[in-house]
Amino acid sequence: MAEKKTFEDSVAELEKIVAQLEGGDVTLDESLTLFERGIKLSKSCQKMLDEAEKKVSILMTTDDGEIVKEEFGDLSEW
Fold first, then answer.
1. Nearest-CA neighbor of 45 among 78, 20, 17?
2. 53 near 75, Cβ under 8 Å?
3. DSSP letters for 11-67
């Protein structure tokens, strides 16, 4: 079984692919292959972000000192 890439590794590979595609020095077939790989990496990164968001929680202390656990929400409220 292949080793699972980290989010950072996937983003780095995706950035490399984007640079190659933007450079224009690849054939059409190579471009399509790179584009397909980039889409797979993008979906993988989004899945990792979604999973991380589900795990994130914020510990908050109430007025009476009780610690409550709240699910991660919209940070624009801060």
1. 17
2. no
3. HHHHHHHHHHHHHT-S-HHHHHHHHHHHHHHHHHHHHHHHHHHHH-EEEEE-TTS-E
pLDDT at res. 78: 47
Contacts for 21-29 with beta carbons within 8 Å, 24 or more apart? Answer: none
Question: Which residues make beta-bridge pairs with 61?
Answer: 67
Q: Would you list the domain boundaries of the chain?
A: 7-77
Number of residues written out for the chain: 78
Q: Which CATH architecture has domain 7-77?
A: Orthogonal Bundle (1.10)
Q: Which helix (H) or strand (E) holds 9?
A: helix 7-23
- Residues of the chain whose pLDDT is less than 50? 78
Tokens for 53?
Answer: 């968001």
